[in-house]
Design a protein that fits this description.
With 328 residues, the protein is α/β, with parallel strands linked by helices. 43% of the residues lie in helices and 13% in strands. The radius of gyration is 22 Å and the shape is globular.
């Protein structure tokens, strides 16, 4: 799809949105992702009759806009009508019609039905690995809570039955958890698992490994992971943080215990890279609360968000190398 300059005005300075869309347009591997989705999209609208469907790339670009600005289906339709910048990015400039919220919803359901979001993450990561941006020798495991509406003032009169409540510190949280496996060298996400909020982090650790790493780092929530049945046969070195209370009790005046404390600091500095992807999806993309009911829909969204966060985190490197030029 031909992409022209996203600016609409001769002023030399672009807005932050223009800069963002220009950069993402150039680093997202559109042809590869369209090729992945297209076989499942063929015939999906033929039985419905009426107007011909929008091209897959148009719908994928709209889906990305939704992810990047955390928009609902109705809000996305409205934004397409109101913002020429978004229509330009989606390839709809000059078009007599705009996808309505039902069309946008159907595309999202298509991705969910055929479990395409994990495949999109895998496709993007394969391209990054080919460029040497993912080394796969070490993995960081981590998890974060994603809030869900706890109110029952909705059409069903109930909370989402797949979400759960858990206590962190002195505060209760209702929602889900996003568990991620992160490349220790680059800080890019390679594996995503979504669970209810009350699922213990350590139970998901083994599932977050890709199988090629030799070292795995986790915080104190992963204590005892090496003894778990699903992790016993894994040929990896686990580097798990000491429990805070036990570390606080170390006598820094003793050389041996001071060394242990320094080792904990080193492990913490390595684990810090796992926080960056969470910061991107929460602060850059605004994903602090689940948008849908059900674990499958929200986990699919997480896969897409982390796929896009990977590209966002290395966009400068890619653009400097010119390794993934605009494919429009």
């Amino acid at each position: 799809m031909e992409q022209t300059n996203l600016g609409f005005d001769p002023l030399p300075k672009k807005t932050r949105k223009e800069v963002f869309l220009d950069e993402m347009n150039r680093v997202v591997p559109w042809p590869e992702l369209v090729a992945l989705i297209a076989p499942h999209a063929r015939g999906a609208h033929q039985a419905l009759g009426g107007r011909p469907p929008f091209p897959v790339e148009v719908m994928l670009r709209i889906h990305c806009l939704q992810l990047w600005w955390n928009l609902s289906d109705p809000a996305m339709e409205e934004e397409l009508h109101e913002r020429p910048l978004y229509r330009q990015f989606a390839g709809l400039m000059g078009s007599r019609r705009i996808p309505d919220e039902t069309t946008i919803l159907r595309f999202r359901h298509l991705l969910e039905k055929h479990e395409l979001a994990p495949k999109i993450l895998k496709t993007i990561n394969a391209g990054l690995a080919d460029q040497g941006l993912m080394l796969k020798t070490g993995t960081l495991v981590d998890a974060t809570l994603i809030a869900a509406p706890s109110s029952t003032k909705n059409s069903s009169g109930t909370r989402d039955p797949e979400m759960r409540q858990t206590k962190k510190g002195n505060q209760w949280h209702f929602g889900m958890k996003a568990h991620i496996g992160v490349d220790a060298e680059s800080g890019l996400v390679h594996t995503v698992i979504g669970t209810a909020a009350n699922v213990n982090d350590v139970t998901q650790a083994a599932g977050l490994l890709h199988g090629e790493e030799t070292d795995v780092f986790g915080d104190a929530g992963y204590q005892g992971v090496a003894k778990r049945e699903e992790a016993k046969d894994l040929d990896v070195n686990w580097h798990v943080a000491m429990r805070p209370g036990k570390r606080k009790a170390l006598d820094k005046n003793r050389a041996s215990q001071r060394f242990i404390d320094e080792l904990e600091k080193l492990k913490a500095s390595i684990r810090a890279k796992a926080e960056h992807p969470f910061r991107v999806i929460k602060q850059q993309f605004g994903f602090t609360k689940v948008r849908f009911r059900g674990m499958a829909k929200n986990t699919a969204r997480l896969h897409m968000l982390f796929a896009m966060s990977n590209l966002w985190m290395v966009r400068k490197v890619i653009l400097q190398r010119g390794a993934m030029p605009s494919m429009g």
